[in-house]
Amino acid sequence: MVYYIGIKEKETLNALGKAPADINRICRHLGFKKIAVSAFPADRSFFYKKLWLVFSYIPMWISLLVKIKKDDKVLIQHPVHGVRIAVFAVPAIKRIKKCEFIVLIHDLESIRLGANGLSRSDKKRTDIADGQLLRMYDKLICHNEKMQIKLVEKGFNKSIIYTLGIFDYLTPFKPSVGNKGKNPSVVIAGNLQREKSEYIYRLISDNINTGLMVNLYGKGFDKEFESKYCIYHGSFIADDLPGRLSGDFGLVWDGTAIDTCTGNTGEYLRYNNPHKLSLYIAAGIPVIIWDKAAMADFVKENGIGITVSGLEDLYMIIKNISDERYREMSENAVLLSKRIRNGRYTRDVFKACGLLEI
Question: What is the pTM for the complete model shown?
Answer without folding.
Answer: 0.94
